[in-house]
Amino acid sequence: MADRPATIGAPTDDDDRHRAPGVVFVVDELANNGAVHITVDLARRWAPGGTLLAVLRRLPDPGAELAIPPGCDVRFLTAPGRRLRSGLARAVPDLLRTSRRRAAVLAASEIGTGLLLGFLAARATRRPFVVAVHADLDDALTEWIPARLHRLTRWVHRHADGAICVAPALADPLRRNGLDDSRIAVVRNGIDLDAVRRAAAGPESLVDKDVPAIVATGRLAPQKAYDNLIRAHALVVGDRPHRVLLLNDGPERETLQALA
Prior knowledge:
Number of strands: 9
Strand order of the largest sheet: 3-2-1-4-5-6-7
Largest sheet: 7 strands, parallel
Distance between the termini: 36 Å
Radius of gyration: 20 Å
Strand content: 5-15%
Number of helices: 9
Structural class: alpha/beta
Helix content: 25-40%
């Protein structure tokens, strides 16, 4: 499917004129992963338009959470160290109030509690519900979600108003699951080149200006195919000197270190 911009229909109920523009992004927690990084950055950029980041639960150690940049409007729905189940009495009404004042609800991941509660909030407040899809739905369910929640998660995906995939291949599992193609859009992750250049020129840069560097930041997992990158590096580095920097962790770390 060709890439195309996503469009979200605006609600038309009576309180539209009292609601802040923008959307509410729902994330499970401020984990240090790529999808959350992207979501937080979008929330920061769109904050002047009324967009808010709703975080369902705090990590036991708030110091381990992804740092919130200045200007990002954030609402934590539960207290640090408190289990989400015990905090639902506060979190759900707060999420409903937040959703009612926005134009749409966007679940920042294709799986998780944020997906389910985001759908509930959107339907209860009659807002469009959109899912940001960062991974293959089938693989993500198998790897991360208990089997008892697979059917419910798939049902939510079939009834979403829209899905925004970061790559064309991620749309296929959604179609197989029953989401109409007209509700699927592909919007690739953007790269802030100016920010990358500033970081590369800074005193803590990991790159050498005289040696080209290939930087990969994804999780060290099989679907990232870092073994192919390492083998390709080995084939050409003798003729074209360069460095490869893998800046993350994951289940394949030891295997990839041995391969390197």
